[in-house]
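If your schedule permits, I should be very grateful for your opinion on a structural question. I have a record of one protein: its chain in single-letter code and its fold written as discrete structure tokens. Would you kindly read the sequence against the tokens and tell me how you understand this chain to fold? Thank you for your consideration; the sequence and its tokens are set out here.


***
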Amino acid sequence: MIVVTGGSGFIGTHVCSALADEGHKVRIIDIAPPPFGVKAEFVRASVLDPIRLTKLFAGADAVIHLAALIDVQSSIADPFSDFQINAEGTVTVLEAARRAGVKKVSYASSAAVYGNPTSIPVDESTPANPLSPYGLSKLTGERLVLLYNSLYGMENNALRLFNVYGKGQSPHSPYSGVITKFANAISSEKRPVIFGDGSQTRDFVHADDVANAFCLTLKTRGCNSPINIASGKETTILELLEKMCAISGKAADPEFKEARTGDILRSCADITLARRELGYKPTVSMDNGLKELLSE
């Protein structure tokens, strides 16, 4: 059995579906139930409840820890809540796993730990320099995850996820990425909003590729370095909008707003370590991923 914290969320539902397809029994721990059709047992529980988690982890082969607050701007407004869920929640999950005899925890970290990197593409040796409480909380979580390998002989992995997109990401959620928000604006014939001048770049990776990466961690003995999970390709926000308009056959007149505090300027991953350690290879091209999303 694989336990997935935060399994009811956007990435979590993709991960749970991939696990079920591989024949795993899946238990979701979340504060909200998953969407209809997800093949998993659901248990409503908090990642801040160590006694309950220890019981729920008993007998599991591994834990995939996705539960988190993931909005940069919300973390700036309320850093305490962000750190409580993301950092304290992670050490609670690790301790519950250790006490339940589960040796493997695969953790969802974030490219936000890098801040504005000094060179592109960014590899895992690049110094971490988070620009927000969110980025710092994810960095704290991943260091705890990897520390448990050396202290307690666990086989954990920390995956630094870049900009994840795909089906099932609600445009009405404050956590939605720019692709989902652009898609909603295009379909409703509203002006897409761009914060800054649109020259900022992101590395967009499809949720199916991310789900596969988590499945691959179950087949390894763990890695003592965080691992980038991305496409390895850099795209500006303006290029993204142009591509989405071309696919949809619609024109868009973006509304430019002031750049937001904590947003990074450039992002693109070196995924060499993921290929070597996990056998990871992104398979969903941006064109195909956007066509799938825009056809919803």
About this structure: The first strand starts at residue 2 and ends at 5. The CA atoms of residues 183 and 294 lie 6 Å apart. The chain is about 40% helix and 15% strand.
